[in-house]
Amino acid sequence: MADFLQTLMTALAIGSLYALIALGYTMVYGVLKFINFAHSDIVVLGAWLSYSFAIRALPLVGLDAHNPATPPPIWMTAGIFVAVLLLCSLAGFLIERLAYRPLRRAPRLNVLITAIGVSLLLQNVGQLDFVFGASPQKMPALLPNWELPIQFGQGESIRYVVLPLIDCIIFAVSGLLMLALELLIFRTKFGTALRAVSFNTDFAALMGIPVDRAISLTFMLGSALAGAAGFLYVLKFPSMNQPAHSVWVLLGLKAFVAAVVGGIGNIRGAVLGGFIIAFVEQFGAYYISSNYRDVYVFSLLILILLIKPTGLLGSPVREKV
Amino acid sequence: MALLDIENLSVSYGSIRALRGISLKVEPGEIVTLIGGNGAGKSTTLRTISGLLSPQEGQILFEGKPIASKSPHAIAANRLIHVPEGRGIFANLTVEENLRLGAYCRKDTHEIRQDYEHALELFPRVKERLWQLAGTLSGGEQQMVAIARALLARPKLLMLDEPSLGLAPQIVQLIFQVIRKINAGGTTILLVEQNANLALQVAHRAYVLEVGKIEMSGPAAELANSDDIRKAYLGGH
Predict the structure, then answer these.
(1) Contact B158/A at CB under 8 A
(2) Which is more confident, B66 or B1?
(3) Looking at the complex, does the CB of residue B165 fall below 8 Å from at least one CB of chain A?
(4) Percentage with pLDDT > 90 across chain B
């Protein structure tokens, strides 16, 4: 029971991160029908920007940049978070504007190859000395290291489960962001317009919807969520691998799998897929063997693709003629 | 001044010239129809006017101002509204959301409300389906949604591309009655149709398009009686 609870909490936190990243993949796929391979690099950008801001901001309040004695005031942590979101959405905007928009009328394969190119570019620029450098770093703690111990059993068989604060924060912050996105997409005029654009850009333009602006906003929203995921990820796992490390690639890849499992192009599917992937991965790792954690994820992908190729919530909308 | 004035318009798809210098005018309050066979360039004409295609040559004046270089959303914001061939329904949205998008560019909430009620009065069947996904409607119902949605933009010029396509004869009758009503309410209409018979009955003036050129034009009643037209398009003898 105790182990189950701990695994559950970890799965919820990791699942939230997969879901946040998967949303960006699925939103871009929804409007442009291509996989933005550079999306996972925005997560890395968010993570490394968090680090760069943190080591510069901490000395301002008299703390050691790399090993602060106490966490910084909460407004500073929040400020870094907001700055990361803004810069990541700016990066998403620029990538779309400079790399993808000129190819709007080109075959989809060209855009796909370009996305891989953008991804490689970001990975390699990130390793430059005057950007983030090519060595691993340790993220300084930005939040108090609170843990919530829960006691199970009595006497001899007493056991404790320790729920880290960061897991709860990841779950809560991601939950709020996803709720905000849900409301934006399904409850506002802008969201309706965005769904119209994702169905057919020409038809949307005939409604007077500025399609290019809607696409820019899609990239900005998706990239902001990816930046949020990068920030939360390094708070949970402070040992940061260098920007082009395969750990990041795998993180992005699993989020992409989450989007596909949920049904690519489907917003709610991305969230569902994120949690399913994390549950399979975490519970498999705990109860079977952690050596095969990646195997569980990709086996699930193969299984889903065999049973329901459109993903769990993805249903091709048929038009009656 | 004509509401829409097209001069010497040429459009190509790659090396294929779809329109070869066509000129046409639509005066305020008219129903003008553009008829012709498959591949004559009817849809291309509408797609060029609404900005989805850009012309190689010629100019398009709407209310006296050139619009040929404008983006489609800016043209729609000027209330030149195009109901495309195949109806252009957003199958993934509800009927109600589809209708709301018709008024996307408008801010006058009160008038939108009125136009919304009015559009539903014209198509009572749409009213029963407001919460359904538009993709689940029949073809006729989708056409009604498409026209109702276009009306929510308060069009100065309404361009309809083959509204009769694939619909049962009774539904076609109903749609054309509504087209008359909309026009009687003061909306100018440019109608593209393969069903020349029907189009000439409802229109004031007509243009006959053949492989990218205007072959004939004049009052609809005259063209309906012309021998050439009857032979070519009306199945007459």
Answers:
(1) no
(2) B66
(3) no
(4) 84
SS3 of residue B62 by DSSP: strand
* Of residues A200, A206, A319, nearest to B50 (C-beta): A206
Q: Is A288 contained in some domain? A: no
Contact B52 A205 (CB under 8 A): yes
Which of A189, A206, A209 is the closest to B82 by Cβ?
A: A206
- CB-count exposure of residue A246 (10 Å: 0-12, 13-18, 19+): exposed
Compare all CA atoms of chain A with the CA of B75 and give the residue at the minimum distance.
A208
Give how many domains chain A has, as a whole number. Answer: 1
Looking at the DSSP bridge assignments, the partners of residue A148 are: A163
- From the list B93, B137, B138, which residue is nearest A195 (CB)? B93
The pTM score is: 0.89
- Which two structure tokens, joined as six digits, stand for B146? 């498409």
In a domain, A294, yes or no: no
The residue behind tokens 């409850």 is A187
pLDDT tier, A91 (very low <50, low <70, confident <90, very high otherwise) = very high
Partners of residue A319 in chain B, C-beta under 8 Å = 89, 91, 135
B89 contacts A196? CB cut-off 8 A: no
Backbone angles phi, psi at A194, to 5 degrees: -65, -40
Coil, strand or helix at A140: coil
Instruction: List pLDDT tens digits, range A110-131.
Output: 999 999 999 999 999 999 999 9
Q: How much is the average pLDDT of B130-157?
A: 95
Tell me A273's DSSP state: H
Q: Pick from A192, A199, A320: which is nearest to B137 by CB? A: A320
Range A17-25 average pLDDT: 96
Task: Tell me whether residue B231 is exposed, middle or buried, using C-beta atoms within 10 angstroms of its C-beta: 0 to 12, 13 to 18, 19 or more.
Answer: exposed
The residue segments making up the domain with residue A193 are 2-244
Query: What mean pLDDT is predicted for residues B62-83?
Result: 95
Q: Give a yes or no: residue A36 inside a domain.
A: yes
Q: Is B118 on the interface with A (CB under 8 A)?
A: no
Contact call for residues B189 and B34 (beta carbons, < 8 A): no
The predicted structure's pLDDT at residue A110: 93
Q: In the prediction, which pLDDT does A12 show?
A: 95
Contact assignment for B139 to A317 by CB distance below 8 Å = no
Residue A207 lies in a domain: yes
